[in-house]
């Protein structure tokens, strides 16, 4: 039997992989991460499936449910919002399953920042502007950031920077990034990306905080900062250049 850690995407029920949909439909046990997973996706669970909201459960309680399901010979669809590789708390669950000898697999999903970029209609790696993306967050009541991963340090690269789980600290984010990016650097906040209640805010580091407060955005949002958000006149990439040598195979 297998525990499947499934990326349930940013919110829209149809932004999941075919593999994820197939596993959900075949798993007699489903654990999902509260309101972050759409109800339409949970409807894919088979009739009679045990469907459990883990929002108020501790790690030990969640792992106990996974072990109980394995002992009963049941596959588990363990749904996490976005993609399991980013801020998902999959690592500590997988560590405990390893210790218990329980098989698991990871099914990738659409992360929130790519859904946000799609809503903004922007590529985050633009030729001659930025070819790197930094994915990070800010310290609040969650796990402390490692030394050297504060926004001022990360901002020195000038790369496109994406801050997860930080809309309620937008003043801090804008202040710390202004030091390296400047007050006129384009910034955007997308809340509930891909959902019917999506909110898209565009501005600069000097203006975005006021927009976030006016819109009442405090959570389920990503902050994106970088010149790519307003890039114009950039060179075409070499990928499709007529000057690039191509083979017939």
Give a description of the structure.
With 249 residues, the protein is of the alpha/beta class. The protein is built from eight helices and ten strands. The strands form two sheets. Strands 3-2-4-1-5 form a five-stranded parallel β-sheet, with helices on both faces. A five-stranded mixed β-sheet has the order 6-7-10-8-9, with helices on both faces. The longest helix has 13 residues, at 59-71. Pfam families: TP_methylase. Its EC number is 2.1.1.133. This is Precorrin-4 C(11)-methyltransferase. GO terms for molecular function: precorrin-4 C11-methyltransferase activity.
Helix/strand order: EHEHEHEHEHEHEHEEHE
Radius of gyration: 20 Å
Specify the helix fraction band.
25-40%
Mean pLDDT: 93
- By secondary-structure content and strand pairing, the structural class works out as alpha/beta
* Overall geometric form: globular
Number of helices: 8
Major sheet strand order: 3-2-4-1-5
Q: What does the largest sheet look like? A: 5 strands, parallel
Keywords: Cobalamin biosynthesis, Methyltransferase, S-adenosyl-L-methionine, Transferase
Protein name: Precorrin-4 C(11)-methyltransferase
Organism: Rhodococcus tibetensis
Pfam families: TP_methylase
Short description:
By secondary structure, the protein is of the alpha/beta class.
Layout: helices, strands, pairs:
Blueprint lengths: L1 E6 L10 H9 L2 E4 L6 H4 L7 E4 L5 H13 L4 E5 L9 H11 L2 E5 L4 H9 L12 E5 L13 H4 L5 E5 L5 H12 L4 E6 L7 E6 L3 H8 L5 E5 L24
Parallel strand pairs: 1-4, 1-5, 2-3, 2-4, 6-7
Antiparallel strand pairs: 7-10, 8-9, 8-10
């Amino acid at each position: 039997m297998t525990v499947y850690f499934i990326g349930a995407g940013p919110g829209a029920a149809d932004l999941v992989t075919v593999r994820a949909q197939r596993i959900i439909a075949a798993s007699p046990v489903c654990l999902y991460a509260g309101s972050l997973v759409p109800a339409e996706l949970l409807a894919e669970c088979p009739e009679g499936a045990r469907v459990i909201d883990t929002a108020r459960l501790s790690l030990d309680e969640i792992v106990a449910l996974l072990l109980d399901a394995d002992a009963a010979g049941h596959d588990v669809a363990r749904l996490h919002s976005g993609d399991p590789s980013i801020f998902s708390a999959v690592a500590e669950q997988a560590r405990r399953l390893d210790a218990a000898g329980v098989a698991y697999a990871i099914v990738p999903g659409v992360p929130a920042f790519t859904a946000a970029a799609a809503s903004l209609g922007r590529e985050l790696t633009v030729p001659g502007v930025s070819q790197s993306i930094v994915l990070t967050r800010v310290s609040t009541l969650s796990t402390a950031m490692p030394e050297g991963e504060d926004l001022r340090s990360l901002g020195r690269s000038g790369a496109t920077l994406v801050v997860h789980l930080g809309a309620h600290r937008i003043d801090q984010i804008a202040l710390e990034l202004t030091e390296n990016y400047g007050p006129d650097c384009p910034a955007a906040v997308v809340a509930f990306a891909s959902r019917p209640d999506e909110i898209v805010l565009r501005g600069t580091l000097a203006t975005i905080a006021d927009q976030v407060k006016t819109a009442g955005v405090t959570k389920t949002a990503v902050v994106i900062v970088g010149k790519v958000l307003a890039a114009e006149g950039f060179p075409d990439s070499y990928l499709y250049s007529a000057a690039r040598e191509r083979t017939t195979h």
